[in-house]
Amino acid sequence: MSDSVSSPQASAVRSYPQEEPKPPLAIFLLLILVVMVPIEFSLKLGSLSLTASRLYLVFLTFMILPYLGELKLRAFDWFFIGHVAWTCVAYAKIYGVGGAVEMSGSYFLEFLTVYLAVRIYLQRIEQIRAVVSLLFLLAFISGVLALPEALTGVHFIHDLGTSITGIVYRLNNEMRMGIYRASSFFEHPILYGVFCASSFGLMWFTSSAVQRMYRAPVLMLATWFSASSAPLLVLLIQISLIIAEKFTRHLKRRDKLLAWAAGAFVLAMQTFTGRGVVGIVTMITINPGTAYTRRAQWNFAIDDVMRHPWLGFIPSTYTRPFWLAPSIDNWWLLVMMRSGIPSLILLALSVLFMWIAIARRQDVPLLFSQLRTGWGLMMIAVLLGAATVTFFGKLQPLFSFYLGMGAALATCTLPAANAGTLPAPQGRSELNYTRFPRSSTRTPSVPPTARKPAKP
């Protein structure tokens, strides 16, 4: 898909986009159905539970099939596909045929279909920025609806869903820090909080100074309504990294310096603390009992992982004392338990190669630099936060969506770094004043039958 570059005379008239780009319709519907439709609106087929988002993903899978042949797969794509394939095989092995259909099918839809859809449809950085705005809007709506829930303890969104469909999803009514833990549209307060906190870095680096003044408090307050340590950890990590980024801009090769510093920190934690990085992260919690439980889960479950390193085992059967519940509050540990160590390695390699591909893009415009920095900080926080929470329910496809955004950043079409760029007016933030060429044709919102998108 070609872009028509505006003339210098036209660029001099206005130094910002004349119209706000919009996310492709397929991506818009995906986020709306994943975030805003509660689990009570599900279709039960025997043991299968088909949520609204899964039904849409079935449809979306068939819609993206014609474009897979034109998709130029990179190393991180192959590692990601390998992770999903290995996980589905492991599910078939440890759960049998019935479990393979349900669990493998769900994982395929919520991980691979989501990733490939984002990879295919987000072809320009303007679209990715529009998705960031949509994520903020969804977090804002979720936070507004979480406010009365945090004050009253009434899960009215889920109660409304139950009154319509008759499906009951039980939620605990726990109070922390003087408020009730809100879930909003999500299945658990932790999932709601992680969603609100996760896009903070992306919001920060793609917003003007004025926008930050109200967007940052909105995300902070929405995260606080969850009253959960994992979301607060994800939020605080991003804030800390934003401050560090601010004060290290003058350093040359700061990426390598920070990498060496992070490596030294990890080595010190592993050598001198007796707990390691995972142990330290799992101790960051509001409830001291939760920290002890998470540490015990790791100590007992990792032995079973070593006994079943290739394809894993049923997580609820791990060796543990009678007082320790079968649930796992560490997504990285859960990945190894249910699909083996190779599954985790493949996913880690996908993220690593994706990161390298994004970092190596040269002569990039300002907007890409902002998105690259924001996505990188977000992923550091989410990856660390995953050591304190399990990505289930809505958070599983959302995590894949974030990885798909990284793949889109690594492969999207970029305008020239200095194409029509004018200085920002005095007193205004430069973030919104970089002009990018307007496309002569619209990117299809949903896969058309008469025209295919450009090869990523």
How much helix is in the residues? Answer: 55-70%
Specify the structural class. Answer: mainly alpha
H and E string: HHEEHHHHEEHHHHHHHHHHH
Strand order of the largest sheet: 1-2
Total DSSP helices: 17
Number of individual domains: 1
The dominant shape is globular
CA radius of gyration is 22 Å
The overall strand count is 4
Q: Describe the biggest sheet?
A: 2 strands, antiparallel
Overall average pLDDT: 85
Distance between the termini: 10 Å
Strand percentage: under 5%
Low-confidence stretches: 1-18, 420-452
Organism: Fuscibacter oryzae
Transmembrane segments: 24-43, 49-68, 75-92, 129-147, 153-169, 190-210, 222-245, 257-286, 331-359, 371-393, 399-419
Biased composition (Low complexity): 434-456
Protein name: O-antigen ligase domain-containing protein
